[in-house]
Write a structure and sequence with these properties.
Shape: globular
Number of strands: 8
Largest sheet: 8 strands, mixed
CATH topology: Rossmann fold
Helix content: 25-40%
Number of helices: 6
Oligomer: single chain
Structural class: alpha/beta
CATH class: Alpha Beta
Length: 224
Amino acid sequence: AVPHTDHTAASPARVAVIGTGPPADATRVALEQAGATLAPVDSNTRFAVLVDHFLSPAEPSQDLLRSDIPHLLIRLTDQSVWLGPLVLPGGSPCLACVELHSHDREPLAGLLAAQLLGERPATDASSCAAIIAAFAALAYRHTLAESPVLVSTRLRFQVTDGRPTISPQAESVPAHPRCGCVSLAHSASLTHSADRPHSGTEAQTDLMNEPRWLPLRAPHARAA
């Protein structure tokens, strides 16, 4: 039998967790237990986890893309825990693709989420922390082993009475045609013309700046 090799034991990787709350705290503990060294994002960061509430903040994901750092999105809403996708800069769909696809399906989704910025979703709780932390540690190990999981895919755990379901629903996240995050990385001949596809960072910035994403008050609407 071939002995198992721990890819994290020889050289602990620097990892950043961006976010607050019980799931983010549990993720930090799980990553340390997996052999990672927690530190703020810098040029030596090899993996990052972005824990957001309702909507991805544009700036952290832009910084991670520019720095070529693989990063995992964990999104918490009132009714669901979303794990993934894992973004491999230049090689897989980015978080802007997630937002653009979401807007295509439901044009008001971003508006509703923006209204809830600063609020704590029901799933930002200790009852959801264990499963989130376990998946984040798994994604970290596989990324360092060059066999990444949750690329172009995200899992939805529906939460009922504070407890996530055992069997998640898998959802494909293809590259969005309005976002050039993948195509631009493989096409050196592209020039900066007015009608070219946006890069991942530009598409997310444009999307967040559009009027439909501005916070308007609709207190009875909660994002799923």
